[in-house]
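Supplementary Text 2. Reproducibility record for the structural model of the 194-residue chain.

All settings were left at their defaults, and a single model was retained for analysis rather than an ensemble. We include the record here because the model underlies the residue-level annotations in Supplementary Table 4.
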Amino acid sequence: MKKEKQNKEKLEVKPKTIEEFKELIEKEGYFECWRAYGLTCFVYRYAPYGHWCGYVGVPKSHKLYGLNYTQASKSLTKLLEKRKRQKVNIKEMGLGPLLAMASSIEELKPTLEIVFDVHGGITFSGKPSVIWKVDNKWFFGFDTAHTGDLVCQILEKLSYKEKDFWLKESGYTYKTKEYVIQETNKLARQISEV
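Retained model, structure tokens:
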């Protein structure tokens, strides 16, 4: 299994130039697949923007197989109760979970996007087209193109002054392949506990 904990400086980086950013992307590659907690995991770089996405696949026999990440499920009720008691790191949550939690914590529905703690929240459920040799698996995924995330191909379209701001002055960071592997393992652990 891939390492679940690493030094934060290696996981979230702040490239100084677009050229440095591109070198880092080329060095990291574009895809990796492994097993963690008995589940199929993979990360891949989303081509149009260059950010990483992480996925965990469950077999047909798993309670969550076929479940949409926004769909409520009784099998997630205990996890929701546990999540309500946890401290929430607002920087790590996606917009969907934040909006749902902001409405009323008592009225929260047990959905994957709420109960699982992963960068930006769960943003995908289904059979991704990027992986082809994992028959009978249903995947849950997340991405690293949220508020606080640097995305190279988006920065390239900006003026020099705007690039300079996002690279040097903003608090945004690039989430490395190792960061996404760590988050994918964290998601696999949580899914394996359902």
